[in-house]
Amino acid sequence: xxxxxxxxxxxxxxxxxxxxxxxxxxxxxxxxxxxxxxxxxxxxxxxxxxxxxxxxxxxxxxxxxxxxxxxxxxxxxxxxxxxxxxxxxxxxxxxxxxxxxxxxxxxxxxxxxxxxxxxxxxxxxxxxxxxxxxxxxxxxxxxxxxxxxxxxxxxxxxxxxxxxxxxxxxxxxxxxxxxxxxxxxxxxxxxxxxxxxxxxxxxxxxxxxxxxxxxxxxxxxxxxxxxxxxxxxxxxxxxxxxxxxxxxxxxxxxxxxxxxxxxxxxxxxxxxxxxxxxxxxxxxxxxxxxxxxxxxxxxxxxxxxxxxxxxxxxxxxxxxxxxxxxxxxxxxxxxxxxxxxxxxxxxxxxxxxxxxxxxxxxxxxxxxxxxxxxxxxxxxxxxxxxxxxxxxxxxxxxxxxxxxxxxxxxxxxxx
Amino acid sequence: xxxxxxxxxxxxxxxxxxxxxxxxxxxxxxxxxxxxxxxxxxxxxxxxxxxxxxxxxxxxxxxxxxxxxxxxxxxxxxxxxxxxxxxxxxxxxxxxxxxxxxxxxxxxxxxxxxxxxxxxxxxxxxxxxxxxxxxxxxxxxxxxxxxxxxxxxxxxxxxxxxxxxxxxxxxxxxxxxxxxxxxxxxxxxxxxxxxxxxxxxxxxxxxxxxxxxxxxxxxxxxxxxxxxxxxxxxxxxxxxxxxxxxxxxxxxxxxxxxxxxxxxxxxxxxxxxxxxxxxxxxxxxxxxxxxxxxxxxxxxxxxxxxxxxxxxxxxxxxxxxxxxxxxxxxxxxxxxxxxxxxxxxxxxxxxxxxxxxxxxxxxxxxxxxxxxxxxxxxxxxxxxxxxxxxxxxxxxxxxxxxxxxxxxxxxxxxx
Lengths: 415, 415
Known about the structure:
Number of strands of chain A: 25
Radius of gyration of chain A: 21 Å
Oligomer: homodimer
Shape of chain A: globular
Strand content of chain A: 25-35%
Structural class of chain A: alpha+beta
Number of helices of chain A: 12
Low-confidence stretches of chain A: none
Largest interface: A-B, 62 and 61 residues
Distance between the termini of chain A: 45 Å
């Protein structure tokens, strides 16, 4: 697969070349929330493109909305058609005169949430993360017996999902130190990030009608970066027996651009090979196709900038490929009891950690719950996040002979 | 407080007298989803009332919507004003000629979900339920150390909430018998109901701005009955460490009529008295007012009709008053970390069980996980629900000198 050329300056070789064309929602100078696609340093205003009659009728209608839900509901065929049309418009010299006026500078654009997120579900798909965390809380029994059978997940809070750049307030909550007799209420002292990937549901399913594994990816619209901010002290005291609640639902940050599955095709990978002795997944979660190409080779990085630093520093680097469960397995499992997913629903992988020490996706793991503080250049150390710390998630795909596909950034400052 | 008279036949003494006026959404003969209020055997069509200029302007606009969210967002003042106006219209002889044509028969009306439910959160507020369930799963340690400090809750799934009358399909899922070597996938063999009360959020709060206890009830719009259908075998295998997921999210049924807090005022009760030795709640969850009148005296019943029965039989009776945490405490706790609630969000109490054997709100508790089957008239027995079983929840308030306030029914048949 060769690299395509766009007439948009700065597109080739950037996070957002012609092969990417991620979708998002931005606020236009006239105040309207508009759907757009990132190309180089610009945004192609798709509402304006629709108004200029550059899009086929149904696509134009969906692109005039203020969120991506309508386009998502149309299914993979529609996002494929929109992608092809945008590639035509942004590469053909013939269209340039009509399309160039529809470009907006990314630098000044305010990005909004890309969709109205009805339901948000967070999984726990990294066996490295589950083992690291399990070891801290249950040293004798780090990985629970269900882990290798069930893609463990739980419902998160959709209302507190914010877009990259929004400040994150340190939450207060009940915590109880191990040696304290009673809990107390106050600001969390163990605020953490979690490096995750979110994936948006395109076409949904009806209540009572599970989505089989072979069809699961047809219901995935695209991917984004996701920071599942976590107050570890609140979480530790509250999470039994019904799971995380206030330790998580004060804020979740996502990157503004949804990278479509079409853009990720060249970066498919084999799913994580299960170690000898691990069980084979049950039949509803197992297929040769999914094993062969259900993974995605996306490099994921966490960068941190404290209030004292001029530039952020990278604190970890992992890969989406390292998950124990594929996106398709998670989605199929979610609907296996008949639960209905709707266009715009967000699923997330859970913290993406790898096998290596520098590939873990949370401070909890990196510092072993604060026992081994992270050393930063300049002499600062971190057990958990401090006020003024900015966490920046980055993601990208790179492969010889292919255009780089970037996810952009997912940023948040603790205030 | 005396009993008010309505000119609507059958209103006085019914579940839905002039003192109740619960709000819901029904499908009108012309196919439109309309907001209405139940009065006796009728529904007052509030869209029609708005169109007939019988409502003040802002109320009229909210009542022309196809869901209650806009009215909810206006806050308690608006629901109070609407209530007073409806009482005028439905009691004054002068208005009768104009209002009578706006009544629709309840018998033939299709009820819809009353609101677009953005977020659904389920609590665990009955200490009897928590203890009963804990004893089955952790005999040595039934009640976890956090229970008496934290109003435990978790996020549920909003998309699979259905309205009374909808069939409930038995879900499939992964289960593992205690003596089995491996789990398997198939229809749940331990389908259960949970008797709960749901409460809808009226005015919301902004992200980062907790709602103090003294203001919590101003954010509650009203209450309904809720059946949190549960597949116990799926739940038991999946729920650690992140809580219930597929064991719950295949269906949740709610009653169609939201009984407002205004209607429940005469049935306020003292909160459950904490036994000697229990901790005092932390300050953010404690107030003299809430202790004195944060409870509600609502009788709650579970009725069961198997496929062989002509009439349902009552299998339990409890009371909402018996919760360990008040509605206000749950709502305040939910926002205590800054989590934002939105108009139309649904919170639920968790299973309402009382101290007595016949006041437990689930089969899990009643049959001790199937060990002591429930004997039904006619000789049938039940460990868990069987296909064709219909579960009917009922709720009502009764007090000498007050009109009865009914919740109507929350029904569902297992198919």
